[in-house]
Amino acid sequence: MNHIKAIQKPSPFESIALVVAIILIISSSIILFDAVPHLPILFSVLLLIAYGLVKRIPFRSLEKGLVDGAGAGMSAVFLFFFIGILISSWIMSGTIPTLIYVGFQIITPTFFFAIVFVVTSIIGVSIGSSLTTVATVGVAFIGMAHVMDISLPIAAGAIVSGAFFGDKMSPLSDTTNLASSIVKVDLFEHIRNMGWTTFPAFVISFGLFAILSPRVETADLEKINLFKEGLLQTGAIHWYAFIPLVLLVILTIRKVPAILTLAISSFVAVLLSYLHQSYGVDQVFSILFNGFNSATGVKDVDELLTRGGMNSMMFTVGLVLLALSMGGLLFTLGIIQTLLALVSSLLRKTYAVISATALTAIGINVLIGEQYLSILLTGQAFQTQFEKLGLANKNLSRVMEDAGTVVNPLVPWSVCGIFITKVLGVATVDYLPFAFFCLLSPILTVLFGFMGKTLTRVDNSL
Questions:
Q1: How many other CB atoms are found less than 10 A from the CB of residue 458?
Q2: What pLDDT, in 10s, does the model give residues 358-381?
Q3: Per the CB 3.0–4.6 Å rule, which of 90, 181, 375, 442 could disulfide with 95?
Q4: Which contacts (CB < 8 Å, 24+ apart) does range 189-193 have?
């Protein structure tokens, strides 16, 4: 969205007033009135259009800003469609039911949350995609938590924490590559440098999840056994059900584009489903669009496995397009550029630069709801300030991820927040207090900035 040029230069007061008004409209509508995010974002768009018209900006220019903003999210829209197809096809092939069944076989309920955090972290690093991790093994784990009748918000917090640890630290991750490339830092040097804040956050989060993990009574374990029997009744628990997951990992490692990876894995999953179930072509099309409809007669199993499909992503897609359209207007009206210039001009000390960088990344996530923009814009805005203070660019790339990548799932109207809520069935505000890794990362990066620790300076004598 950085290609959108401002057609005016608003005053700092106007920019701040508009941003505050938008935040109030969105937050009050969602928190106080339990509104879906679409409407307050649409109201915010109307507010920005009204402001532009008062400033005598042609409506066609404002409309172009809306379209350009929405256009920036088209790749995400197609990704969401294919993730919806992936979920339904993985249920057809037995991949998700088998993952759940095996998980019940190997997981220790007493340390459930800690194990969920570690497993999702490993898978997240392996495939480099937080959303794919959430949509696959995350769905399996949230199903286990539901069956064991333990806290879904804490389980979702563990899933989100692990998935975004993987998204942050994987060399296969789009955000990791973007953060390193935007400020010209070697990818693996960037990942190593992130370890200073990431591993302490990981250890603390693991400890907190271990403490919060419940003691499961015998009755709960009996319920798990009933659930396992229900899964077996689907006839979809087979060794070959892991093939789509293995294929997904291999294609990701081979750096095949995400959409193609999801499409290939989904296609193979549909073919594998014919080994245990005969579907008509019309049934396959219906499942891929409307989602899988489980009818085992076991309520918990049916609730878990009735999901997926392109249609399930329509709510998400609509909200993403609205949010990005609002972002396009904010750029067209010069509001974002004015705020970034205002913040960057006030920085003189190392701790102030790092704190402002983190707050800017967080602010863009809250205002626009897009993690890629929080990384891109923050890097562009603060690279000069880091250079003036003699700080190596890898310090900036680390802050961009600590306060950009992992904060997005904590914002209810963000791309990641919307998607996770839709897939896991747990509201963003409910799992937010328990997404320990995502909360600790920006805190630690700001704390180390104040302490002057783990910072690398450029040797100007060379």
A1: 14
A2: 998 998 888 777 787 788 778 867
A3: 90
A4: 189/394, 190/394, 190/397, 190/398, 193/394, 193/395, 193/397, 193/398, 193/456
